[in-house]
Every structure is written in structure tokens, then in C-alpha cells.
Amino acid sequence: MKLQIHDTLRRDKVEFQPQNPQRVTLYVCGPTVYSYAHIGNARPVVVFDVLFRLLRTIYGEDHVIYARNITDVDDKINKAAMDQGVEIDVITNHFADIYNQDMATLGALRPTLEPRVTHNMAAIVDQIAAIVANGHAYAEQGHVLFDVESFKTYGALSRRSVDDMIAGARVEVAPYKRNPQDFVLWKPSKTGEPVWDSPWGPGRPGWHIECSAMIEANLGLPIDIHGGGHDLIFPHHENEIAQGLCAQHAHGHDSEYAHYWMHNGFLTFDGDKMSKSLGNVKLVHDLIKQVPGEVIRAALLSAHYRGPLDWTGELIAQTQSRLDGMYGTLRKFAAVPVRDEATPPAVLEALSDDLNTPRAFAELSALAKALETAADDAARIAAKSQLLAAGKVLGLLQGDAEAWFKAGVDEDLTVKIDALIAERIAARTAKNWSEADRIRKALDELGVEVMDSATGATWKLKAGV
RNA sequence: GGCCUGAUGGCGGAGCGGUUACGCACCGGAUUGCAAAUCCGUGAAGCCCGGUUCGACUCCGGGUCAGGCCUCCA
């Protein structure tokens, strides 16, 4: 099975070949922990979690190193800390914990490494020093700036020319910059802000340097795959390349930084861009109180990762129905034993085609149907095992099927429902249909739907209750 | 202005130069005390205009529309 991925730099689908199959490296830009993550932030997390699972499937669980940084030095963090009168780590630890909990609710595995800027300051200073030593950066008024003109292939990832950028520059050029497109590697901290020592004076790192420095320090250059949101292509990833390469050699373009670049598309909300002014920012932290994390995950995977995805109530409802159907099948065949099963080839094939999750979903449906229509126990065991194995690589269907339909039901209600169902079973046994119907109606008023079967009765909460 | 995406049935969403995607919803049938679930089945598509081709939703050109990036941003 050959893994094909779309590489942003080449603008084409290419075969993935790791430098070392025993040590496949993946880096994805993670959160700046000053507040809660929104669903837009969750898309890359879920998408690259599937990639992580797929790579582990192909190369072995211990042969994939996935790093996702936590940015804990940032202006917005400083502001939040200042506003609340606390040290920045009070803010960053708090939101990093919430972030990890929320992403776990979406079924995302913890990355192998979660490097933090504050823990990698020496590596950052080292990388800046190397860039300066190689003649690609200059110090000016306490700042260190990357000299874009010194790096000939700058703009290759985003397909921008330096000339265009100069022509289109809209912002006022800071006096310490030689050229408007030069970007900050190190800058002085303002009064009251956290500060670290450096050869260029006390200060803090610029925005882009953290990722390239942490990649070099934690994974080693070049890495196999670098991922992130589409919006990071420019300037963030462009600048990472410039830094990472120019730290290694005086002519950075002679080596490589990341062999494959993957970027997920954006989310819109009922067709609009998410923005604070429109008031349509949906936080994962809030959403998971209303919708199962697995539904959110499946909805995020319902479209191909590179395309746009419109986040709507309809999308959530359709995704919920789809998962209800599959969990319903699993509940119906709860007694069928499961054996260890490799990822079904059709699913592996779909995901190996640049993470074609919609096609993987189609296979999931086919396997669920195979389970429903299996002629004998052997076929049922095979189909159920395959369905669960397929779900595993997608991070879906691993929960208890019975619990799926009863999520959020408190104990009092459960007791009440179970009692009514017992009464109803007695009535049905006695063929007292009017009593049975009366109880069905009573349950209905509790928002519960009863499903009779040959072996008893099950129930679930009705949609929207 | 520059760069980049996308446009598929009622909705979501893939593949594919000629053959059913798949799901959700709907409709018909089976099944069910009733119902749900399930199964079987029907219907439903490819923004516009050209071109290439025996044949295009699929390739090429142009247009229209929508969205993103160029400043913090997944």
C-alpha cells in the first residue's frame, strides 16, 4: 500500500517516502494557549490525528514521532496575564490543560511530543545565532531580523515573489528593518513582559522562530511531514523554511526543511467566515457540552481535509444520524464476539489516497451493512471485527454502543425508564396491547423511544431531546 | 492589485473520460400487535459558454459566482 499525500510545495499528490521507516516524523502547528480553542482550531487536530493513526498503522506504533507545539509565549498571553495580574504560566497551563482535555474529547490521541516555547528557549537562541552567523539575519536596536533578500528561494511555498510583497506592502516599515518583508526573530520585551537573556539583549522570540527551533531541537532536520492550517502557509511556514534552512547552511536552499507540506482547508459557519465581529465563534469547549465529541470529529472528517467545510446545524444532525445508525448496528450485534483484525484494505486504501476520509466513511457503511446482512456467525464476527478495525484508524466507533444512546441520561431517569420498560414487557407478554401502548406513550413523553426485539427491548433518547 | 481554492442530486460529499459512490432526508415494498431498527427497491446530479473526443460531471480555454491568504489567525 503506497501512501499518497498532497504536498503544498509541489502542488501535487506525491508518494510518501519517509527518510527512515523506523522513525517517521510529523510536526503540526499547535495552539497558542491564551484562551479556548474553537472548532476551526480543531480541524487540523482531528485531520492530523487521522494521519498519525494511519502512519502508526503503516509503520508501527513506535515508529512515528508526532510533535505538536504549545505556544506559551505570545502577546495575547501577556495581555491576559497582565489583565488578571498573574504570571503567564498560570494562563498557559490552564488553557493547555483544557485544550488537551477538549481535543481528547474529540478522540485525538496525544502527540508523542508537545514542546513548549518556554522549555526550548536555548534552542531558539541557538538557532537565531546560527542564522546570524550564516549571514541571513542582522541585529538592530535590540531586534534580530531575518534578511529575506539573502534567501533566494523565499516565497517558494506560498508562490509569492519578494518583489510582489514589497510592492504590496501596506504596513508601515519599522525603522530597524532593512526591507519591509524582513521579519523578527528576536525582539525586546516591553516593560512588565516576560523576558529571556540573549546575545542581542533581553527579550523574547518572534512568532515564527519557535516552530523551526523546536523542530530542529526535538525532531531534527529535515522532518518528513509538516502540517497545519491553510492560512499558515504565509507567512508562518514560509518563514519557518527560511529559518530552518538558513540555520543549517550559509545557503539554506541547499538542504531541506520538511519533505512534505500538508495544509487543511478552512471552516466556514453557515457560509460565513468565523469572526468575533459576526459573533459566530464556536468554542470546542462549549460545543462538546451539546454534541458528542465523536459527532464533532466525524463531522470534521466528513469532507476531504483540503476542501472547505461549512459548519452548520444540518451537518451536525446528519453526522449524528449516521453515527446513530452505525452504533445502532453495533448495539444490535453486541453479543457478537470481536477478534483482532487488521485495518480493512479498502479503508487503508481510501486513507492512503491523501486521507480520503469520505471514501473511508463509505467503506464504514459497507461494513455495517455486511454486519446487518451476514448470513451466519462467522460472517458476523468477521464483519463486526472489520468495522471496529476500520473505525479505529479513524478514531470512531470505539465506544460502548449501549452507552452511545444513553449519553447524558442521569441515574434517576434511567431507573424510571427501566421500570417502565419492565412493566411494558410484562404487558406485552400478557398481550395487553393497550397497556403496552400507554407505556410507550409515557416513555415518549420522557423523550425515550423504545425498540422491541425478540430478546427484549432497548431504548434511546429521541433526537433533539 | 497579487496568490490560491472551490462550484456535483432536497442536503452533505467522493471517485471516474463510457458502468450504482456513500451518507442524511424522501417515496414504495418486506418485516413488526403498534412503533423503531433492519432488509429489498424507486426517484434524484454535475454553475455558464466554447473546445478536444466516437463519447465529458470527469480533459483544455474563457466566463460567472463563492471563499481564503497577502496584517494576528487552523
Summarize this, please?
By secondary structure, the protein is an alpha/beta fold. The protein has three domains: 4-264, Rossmann fold (3-Layer(aba) Sandwich); 268-403, Isoleucyl-tRNA Synthetase, Domain 1, CATH 1.10.730; 406-461, no CATH class.
Structure write-up:
It is an enzyme of class 6 (ligase). ATP binds at residue 276. Helix 9 (293-300) packs across helix 10 (313-332), helix 12 (357-373) runs antiparallel to helix 13 (377-394) and helix 15 packs antiparallel against helix 16 (433-445). Helices cover 44% and strands 14% of the residues. It has 465 residues and is an alpha/beta fold. A 4-stranded parallel sheet has the order 4-3-9-10, with helices on one face. The protein is elongated and about 90 Å long. The protein contains 16 helices and 15 strands. It binds one RNA strand of 74 nucleotides through helix 1, helix 5, helix 7, helix 10 and helix 12.
